[in-house]
UniProtKB/TrEMBL annotation:
<dbReference type="InterPro" id="IPR025669">
    <property type="entry name" value="AAA_dom"/>
</dbReference>
<keyword id="KW-0812">Transmembrane</keyword>
<feature type="domain" description="Tyrosine-protein kinase G-rich">
    <location>
        <begin position="353"/>
        <end position="426"/>
    </location>
</feature>
<dbReference type="Pfam" id="PF13807">
    <property type="entry name" value="GNVR"/>
</dbReference>
<dbReference type="InterPro" id="IPR005702">
    <property type="entry name" value="Wzc-like_C"/>
</dbReference>
<comment type="similarity">
    <text>Belongs to the CpsD/CapB family.</text>
</comment>
<feature type="transmembrane region" description="Helical">
    <location>
        <begin position="34"/>
        <end position="54"/>
    </location>
</feature>
<dbReference type="InterPro" id="IPR003856">
    <property type="entry name" value="LPS_length_determ_N"/>
</dbReference>
<keyword id="KW-1133">Transmembrane helix</keyword>
<dbReference type="GO" id="GO:0005886">
    <property type="term" value="C:plasma membrane"/>
</dbReference>
<keyword id="KW-0547">Nucleotide-binding</keyword>
<dbReference type="GO" id="GO:0004715">
    <property type="term" value="F:non-membrane spanning protein tyrosine kinase activity"/>
</dbReference>
<keyword id="KW-0418">Kinase</keyword>
<keyword id="KW-0829">Tyrosine-protein kinase</keyword>
<dbReference type="InterPro" id="IPR050445">
    <property type="entry name" value="Bact_polysacc_biosynth/exp"/>
</dbReference>
<keyword id="KW-0472">Membrane</keyword>
<keyword id="KW-1003">Cell membrane</keyword>
Length: 693
């Protein structure tokens, strides 16, 4: 339940309350006119945009498909491989379709430089451009290349290329103000893309053919040179072949075998000759000679024996010399033949090297020659890696602006702006519209809600209070009186002080209305004008005479009963304020003021004191120290939360919390827009309950 006192720091009502859908709907209901106005303005702006500003644009779409499996006219290896169709190549082909080089060719093919849609320099200048041209010097005229580049850039912005998911198909979408032009551009891009693939392959083949031709010529010369070296070597050298070299090696082997035998024979002859030379006796000589003829000579024929032996020795010496001569001849032949074999072996190695070089040159030449023939055969039969799947169809309806979408967005924007304006207005306005808001923000009980009194003058307001006791406003005052009296059943308040944060918030009217109501119930009521500065009580009671007032009573110049004036029509006793040389705060803080209240309590049932606004002067806080109850008037939809918080804080600084709040000058018709339920309208629709009974 709200308290009469609280902390000095009170949260905002927008911070303490959660977002309630009912509150939100109520807020929007109050601002339906704002939403309606913003909605109408947004729809009007959308209609104006569609009718006068928006330029219809059309989108034409052509599709091409990559051919990952191509039919080959000839089974040759191509100079440029076909596309594999993986993700990287698909993304690369998308970029090729959007490339500046390809689109620059489209600009040239369709002469888009002469089209104002893409060459904006040909379009008439707008009013803004004309105005800016007056303020700045004219820029230098662009070159033809700059114009072409700008046109290509405009075409790039009008083009969208995408690879359809899970396929090798590319969609080429072109946006233009002319539907036929959009289709023509899309088809041209597709055709030039296909042609570009063929041209790329043709150029690659031409380049390869040119290079291969040059390379084959070079290899042919190298082959001829290598074969010439082989021929020259064969001419300069004797006939060399592996067979001839093998025959020489056989001959060398035979000589070496003969040389071995001759050396063995020589050794045998040397041994034989040495044996003959060492023999001394005839028996030794016969044994050494082993000659049959020598053996047949009689022992006694010494001359014949010696002659034969001498002949044998001479023959042995001759045979030894002949063997040594043959060995020398064979050794000479061996050296000569060995040198010949060595020379021919070296020549054979060189010949083989030259032959291998010539053969390698021949193989390389034949390979490049065959590749040249294959490459030359591919000229004229190049195939693109893609084909057109579908030509662009001239669109029959514009793609933008989409009228339904524009109208829908405009309506949504109008509603959102309206809601935002309402929310901004609500957030900016921290005034109070319902008792629930006031209690939540102040943590203080709201004891009453007094409707706005439709009176043009203050006397008319008093007359209304007296003549219409059954009016909703007076019923609200009775409710205020009841709430105030029941706030402390054991000791109902007798000295009641009314104040507010600022002037004009209904504190004086509240004081008068409460006093009139109490007097009508038979109570003796003293209405005291505690505001010594403005002194407005006499405006409500024109019949009051001037003279002594509250200041005179407090200063002791007159007694209370001498200063009090009675109003027979309302039954009130009135003590008006009067100008005083003394400071009001000093007067109310004096013992005389306390004595005055004690005397008033003895003579009256209730004392109602109307005090100055608390944010203007400190009088109210001082007078409140001696009051039984403090009613704080909060003007409906006017007093702000900051003003209320500061005023309540000032009362808390003097340890005199406010007893209750009164929501004044309530416009009941408008309050229905802010009330969250019927309970907040209890002083409105049901305020007159029972008045006519």
């Amino acid at each position: 339940m709200p308290r009469a006192s609280g902390s000095t720091s009170r949260p905002s009502r927008f911070e303490t309350e959660t977002v309630d859908p009912l509150v939100t709907l109520t807020m929007l209901g109050r601002g339906w006119r704002v939403i309606l106005v913003t909605l109408i303005l947004a729809l009007a702006a959308a209609a104006l945009y569609l009718a006068m500003l928006a330029t219809p644009s059309y989108v034409a779409r052509a599709t091409v498909i990559l051919e990952t499996h191509r039919s080959e006219v000839v089974d040759f290896n191509g100079v440029v491989d076909g596309l594999r169709g993986d993700a990287d190549e698909l993304n690369s082909e998308v970029e090729v379709l959007r490339s500046r080089g390809l689109l620059n060719r489209v600009v040239g093919t369709l002469d888009l430089v002469q089209d104002p849609e893409f060459n904006t320099r040909l379009a008439p200048p707008s009013l803004l451009d004309r105005a800016l041209s007056l303020l700045r010097s004219a820029p230098p005229a662009p070159s033809a290349q700059q114009i072409r580049d700008a046109t290509t850039t405009a075409l790039i912005e009008a083009l969208k290329v995408r690879n359809l998911p899970s396929s090798y198909v590319f969609e080429i979408a072109v946006t233009s103000e002319d539907p036929a032009k959009a289709a023509r551009i899309a088809d041209t891009i597709a055709n030039l893309y296909i042609r570009n693939q063929i041209e790329v392959k043709f150029e690659a083949t031409e380049t390869a053919t040119s290079w291969l031709t040059e390379r084959v010529g070079t290899l042919k010369q190298e082959l001829e040179t290598a074969e010439g070296r082989v021929k020259a070597f064969n001419t300069q050298s004797p006939l060399i072949s592996p067979t001839a070299l093998a025959a020489l090696e056989v001959q060398l082997k035979d000589i070496r075998e003969r040389l071995t035998r001759m050396r063995q024979e020589r050794d045998a002859r040397e041994t034989y000759l040495r044996a003959l030379s060492e023999a001394a006796s005839p028996e030794d000589k016969r044994a050494a000679a082993a000659d049959p003829t020598l053996n047949r000579i009689a022992p006694d024929d010494r001359a014949a024996f010696d002659a034969r032996f001498t002949t044998l020795v001479a023959q042995a010496e001759t045979d030894l010399l002949r063997a040594e001569d043959q060995i020398a001849a064979l050794e000479t032949s061996d050296v000569a033949l060995q040198g010949q074999i060595s020379r021919q072996g070296e020549d054979m190695i060189e010949l083989q090297q030259l032959s291998r070089e010539a053969e390698a040159s021949r193989m390389l030449y034949e390979f490049f020659l065959n590749r040249l023939k294959e490459t030359s055969a591919q000229n004229g039969i190049q195939q693109a890696d893609a084909r057109i799947l579908s030509q662009a169809v001239i669109p029959d309806a514009p793609a933008s602006p989409r009228k339904g979408l524009v109208i829908g967005l405009a309506a949504a924007l109008g509603i959102v702006v309206g809601i935002a304006l309402i929310a901004a207005r609500e957030l900016r306005n921290t005034a109070f519209r319902t008792a629930r808001e006031l209690e939540a923000a102040s943590d203080t009980l709201v004891m009453g809600q007094i409707p706005l009194l439709r009176a043009r003058t203050r006397p008319e307001m008093l007359r209304f209070l007296l003549d219409a006791p059954g009016a909703p406003a007076m019923e609200a005052v009775r409710n205020l009186r009841t709430s105030l009296m029941l706030a402390n059943v054991d000791a109902p308040p007798r000295v009641i002080l009314t104040t507010s944060a600022l002037p004009g918030e209904g504190k004086t009217t509240t004081a008068i209305a409460l006093a009139v109501n109490l007097a009508a119930s038979g109570k003796a009521v003293l209405l005291v004008e505690g505001d010594l500065r403005r002194r407005t009580l006499s405006d409500y009671f024109p019949g009051l005479a001037g003279g002594a007032g509250l200041a005179s009573v407090l200063s002791g110049q007159v007694e209370l009963d001498e200063a009090v004036q009675n109003d027979p029509e309302s039954g009130l006793s009135l003590l008006i304020g009067e100008e005083s040389a003394a400071n009001g705060a000093d007067l109310f803080a004096s013992a005389a003021y306390r004595h005055f209240l004690e005397e008033a309590r003895r003579h009256y049932d209730h004392v109602i004191i109307d005090t100055p606004p608390v944010l203007i002067v400190p009088d109210a806080r001082i007078q409140a120290q001696a009051a039984d109850a403090v009613l704080f008037a909060v003007r409906w939809n006017a007093t702000t939360q900051g003003q209320l918080e500061e005023a309540l804080r000032m009362f808390e600084t003097v340890h005199r919390p406010v007893t209750g709040l009164v929501l004044t000058q309530v416009d009941m018709a408008k309050m229905r827009r802010y009330a969250q339920d019927s309970s907040e309208l209890r002083y409105g629709s049901y305020a007159a309950y029972g008045a006519a009974e």
